[in-house]
């Protein structure tokens, strides 16, 4: 399985790179060999990856990353082939039709996911908890958010989760993240796939096109429980 970690030099905040490590590890535990490309922003996007990961970023690196990915076209080609894409925060906004620049001006995104983002009045900072869309079969997710962006989901994408705590998409509809086909975006750092092994397994299932052997997640489960309790009982 070829994993492409897009532009760690521009998009990687709050440990988002941990998402690659968890995918590699959870694939290896099922006997699936992986190869990860750490793709710098001056390199062409290989169109033959199985899973593409994008992280969060400050406004300027986000704008630069969007320009380079639009000009490159490799991610579009990969999506047309049916590749899996998982994007966090700035990466999530970039996948949409447009996102807000440093002054809130609308800037073009990649148009790979039917969402539109702009800038909200207030930064959303803190813990997020969400109940995932039932058809995805992933337990309650938890993460850390820090963004000014507000995201609206169009008719060709679906909310990843319903917010239980925190802000998420912030458009007043109580949703967090979005997905369509094998493209999934979220505001959750953490890293999201470390905190939520169920989400990591969803991406792996999509990539291999089959159910996966279960893994003993008792330690991860205890840490998740602690985190969820801490957020949901903090008032
Ligand atoms: N710059 C974007 C925003 O503030 C994304 C931030 C992030 O990726 N943490 O909305």
Automatic annotation (TrEMBL):
GO molecular function: carbon-nitrogen ligase activity on lipid II; glutaminase activity; transferase activity
Top-level division of the source organism's lineage: Bacteria
Catalysed conversion reaction: beta-D-GlcNAc-(1->4)-Mur2Ac(oyl-L-Ala-gamma-D-Glu-L-Lys-D-Ala-D-Ala)-di-trans,octa-cis-undecaprenyl diphosphate + L-glutamine + ATP + H2O = beta-D-GlcNAc-(1->4)-Mur2Ac(oyl-L-Ala-D-isoglutaminyl-L-Lys-D-Ala-D-Ala)-di-trans,octa-cis-undecaprenyl diphosphate + L-glutamate + ADP + phosphate + H(+); L-glutamine + H2O = L-glutamate + NH4(+)
InterPro entries with a match to the protein in the record: Class_I_gatase-like (IPR029062), CobQ_GATase1 (IPR033949), GATase_3 (IPR011698), Lipid_II_synth_GatD (IPR043702)
Residue sites binding substrate per the record: 123
Membership in a protein family: Belongs to the CobB/CobQ family. GatD subfamily.
Protein name: Lipid II isoglutaminyl synthase (glutamine-hydrolyzing) subunit GatD
Native source organism of the sequence: Actinomadura rudentiformis
Encoding gene, per UniProt annotation: gatD
